[in-house]
Amino acid sequence: MFCACAIFSAQAQSNMDYRRNSLATVLVYHPEDEFGNEIYKAFDSLPVPDKYDDHTIIGSRIINNAKIGGVQRRDSGYFKATYGHQLTAAELQANARHTERLLNEAQIGKKMIAKWFGFEGNTVSDATFNTRLVQERGQYNANDIDVELALQTTRGLYTLSDAGEELLGNTYVLVNDITYITAEQEAAAAKIAMGVLGGILDGLTGGSAGRDLAQTAGKIADSFTGFKVKTHSYLYRLEWNDSIAAIFYQFYYTDKPDSAKVQAFLDDKTTFRVKYVAHEYEFDKKSVLKGQYSRTELVRTICARSMDKNIVSLGKQYEDFKVKTPVYDVLDNGRGKIEGYAAKIGMKEGISESSKFQVVQCIQNPETGKTTYKYVATVKPKKGAIWDNRYNAVLEQADGSTLPYTTFVKTSGGEILPGMLLIEGKYRKVEE
Predict the structure, then answer these.
(1) Using CA atoms, how far apart are residues 274 and 285, in angstroms rounded to an integer?
(2) What SS3 string covers the chain?
(3) pLDDT, tens digit, for every residue of 87-142?
(4) Cα of 85 vs its chain's centroid, Å
(5) Which of 52, 74, 377, 429 could form a disulfide with 23 if both were Cys (CB 3.0 to 4.6 A apart)?
(6) pLDDT value at position 287?
(7) Confidence at residue 368, expressed as pLDDT on a 0 to 100 scale
(8) Dihedral in degrees, nearest 10, Cα atoms 247, 249, 253, 255
């Protein structure tokens, strides 16, 4: 049988469901910075990218740099990327491990499990778990994912294992450490550089040409307006395997009030953890925004695009974090000739004319309930038909921003149907 990501009617295409990775986003907040509050507000207003299921943990989205004991030798908080200073490899590793420690001390892993299994209740005596979210995101029926029933059958165990691999094991925390460069910082540096150059020139010539040059450069630098962010993104994955699952299902999970199991879950501070897996850095010295923005909207737009770029790069670097998206429609010329395939991804997801995607069919084994991905075809974006879906692209009237999707053309393979999945590059879990 096909799982829910396989084939859909045309009427259902706009509401396609498929197994996304789950993502929680966190910001390292720098209240000591002039624009720290604007970055905080910008981050807080941005949703989790829609190609991921939102696994936000309420009350756990901010790491306040001013309130933590940090990794720096003299100051509290993080090693920071500032104007004129790039983080070294040692500083990046220190930040990454420091963040992992902070997340695990805050028991983010356990909070993620609690969200997955609907942990709710006002007291230990009435708290319970449920599998509604697992059913919803994995398109399992209630009987297949009922924990008590599943633990009694081989097929049920396979289904729980599949849910763990496809869903819980692909749950991530993305920590964004955003610092910035302003026009004023660049202007000040330009003034200093030109002042030094002017002094040398005057010393060689005995005239005032150097001082005049410095003054002119200062005026040019002062007239420049811009705000550019340096975004270091650290990716963490929820640790979930058969051993951890066995502990959870045997000793903690209960869909009926059981204060002993609930208290044991609350007391466990070591089983459920997140692990650092990758880092990405984004800084575009040439970034220019065409539209008219207020200071707040300028910061929000630049931060949104910077984080999107890092997410794209992390997916290429750490393949289990890859974006998967369904084929939205098969496009023909009205006379039966197929001219392309539509998908709701674009420049926000890093699509360019050089991108290549596998088209895969998601198949669920009726005997075991396990899910596999079968290769169907290879496609690439059609030239001039890439959707610019970046934050505020429509406001800027950017090329491609009014398109409803990106059009792909097949370069090899078999028949492509709506609902089949697109995965960029080669994905190791796809069977030929």
Answers:
(1) 33
(2) CECCCCCCCHHHHHHCCCCCCEEEEEEEECCCCCCHHHHHHHHHHCCCCCCCEECCCCCCCEEEHHHCCCCCCCCCCCCCCECCECCCHHHHHHHHHHHHHHHHHCCHHHHHHHHHCCCECCCCCCCECCCHHHHHHHCCCHHHHCHHHHCCCHHHHHHHHHHHHHCHHHEEEEEEEEEEEEHHHHHHHHHHHHHHHHHHHHHHHCCCHHHHHHHHHHHHHHHCCCEEEEEEEEEEEECCCHHHHHHHHHHHCCCCCCHHHHHHHHHCCCCCCEEEEEEEEECCCCCCCCCCCCHHHHHHHHHHHHHHHHHHHHHHHCHHHCCEEEEEEEEECCCCCEEEEEECCCHHHCCCCCCCEEEEEEEECCCCCCEEEEEEEEEEECCCCCCCCCCCCCCCCCCCCCCCCEEEEEEEECCCCCCCEEEECCCCCEEC
(3) 999 999 999 999 999 999 999 999 999 999 999 888 999 999 999 999 999 988 88
(4) 26
(5) 52
(6) 65
(7) 75
(8) -170
Length of the chain (residues): 432
Q: At 72, list the tokens.
A: 């720096």
User: What pLDDT score was predicted for residue 153?
Assistant: 87
Alpha carbons 10 and 6: distance in angstroms, whole number = 13
Name the nearest CA neighbour of 357 among 376, 329, 339, 330: 376
Structure tokens at 407: 């059009």
Which pLDDT score is estimated for 202?
46
Alpha carbons 123 and 263: distance in angstroms, whole number: 10
Residues in the chain where the model's pLDDT stays below 70: 1-17, 72-75, 183-226, 286-292
Residue 394: which residues within 8 A CB-CB, separation 6 or more?
401, 402
Residue 134 token pair = 């697992």
CA distance 70 to 321: 28
Look at residues 118, 88, 15, 16 and name the one whose alpha carbon lies nearest to residue 419: 16
What's the rounded Cα separation, in Å, for the pair 88 and 101?
20
Query: Crossing angle, helix 295-317 and helix 36-45, to 10 degrees?
Result: 70
Residue 216's pLDDT is: 45
| Number of Cβ within a 10 Å radius of residue 208 | 12
**pLDDT tens digit sequence for 21-37:** 999 999 999 998 888 99
Give the chain's radius of gyration (CA, Å): 26
The Cα-based distances of 62 to 110, 280, 385 in angstroms read: 17, 19, 38
